[in-house]
Design brief:
single chain; 356 residues; alpha/beta; Rossmann fold; five-stranded parallel beta sheet; 53% helix
Amino acid sequence: MSVNSVSPEHALRSLDGYDRIIDARSESEFALDRLPGAVNWPTLNDEQRHIVGTEYKQVSPFAARKRGAALSARNIADHIERELGDAGRDWRPLVYCWRGGKRSGSLALVLDQIGFKVDLVEGGYQGLRRALVTSLDELAPTLRYQVLCGTTGSGKSRLLQVLQGAGEQVLDLEAIAEHRGSVLGLVPGVVQPSQKAFDTRVWDQLRRFDPGRPVWVESESKKVGALRVPDALIDAIRQSPCWRIDLSVDARVALLMADYDFFVADIEAFCERLDALRELRGSDVIDRWQAAARSGAVEDVVRELLLLHYDPIYLRSIERNFAGYRDATVLQPRDGSWEALREVAKGLTTGNLALP
């Protein structure tokens, strides 16, 4: 028997055909990014990699390889005993590590010797990353996007969720990025994924869409929090037809107060986030907003944020960057409630509102 080496491109095309996708890298490497659905079977964990690396430098490469081999053998034995008790002869895994070298090769060799049909990715994670970025760039322009536009608080994210619940194809970049797309958009206690993990999650969504059906998406900027939307994707979205959601200021304030209720519960976190606007709005304005928020007038601060900060910036950006905005079909929910947005979604999905 011999381990079957496959190209990164083949691995990505065949991803859904494997019984298990095994990432043989350490737990910290795995945490930063991995293939969708992958499980982590470290051939060497973080601590062991440090031990072997230190011995390589301070003693000799030969001594380090001996120690690494012993540690790897024990880890591989543990993985097999823990994970493969019920695996039959037809169980088929895909295995990769950092560069497709010793760590994944050792694991793949043992699995092959047992009798499993193992595919080992040539070039490892690095090769997969390059192939995935190329695939993402190729996929992005092939889809038919329908772009939801509207000033902050108009219900774009809520409408996306309603459309998704109705069975529509939805690309929710803010959900993938774990950020709500503004200076106040990082939810307390939530850490955004790495840029590489974000790209992988976006690619995984795009590859699953039917190009014959529309994909609903928000009119995002090039960055969602700290993460950059891939260029090919943002370019395709910006050339697509737009739908403009119009809500009154009162309805937008009410929606934001509901969706950002964690800031009402933690005024100091809200005030701290406002500090990011000092350079743009000046310290006098920020000090006044913070004082008002601490006195309980959060709604008043949200209203001023919309009218003085978010709306002017959004309108300049949307008109400059989205080709279909001026001809956008206008959607006018009676308010920003979930029920009102379900009514709008019903019009979009039943054909009462024709797609461009």
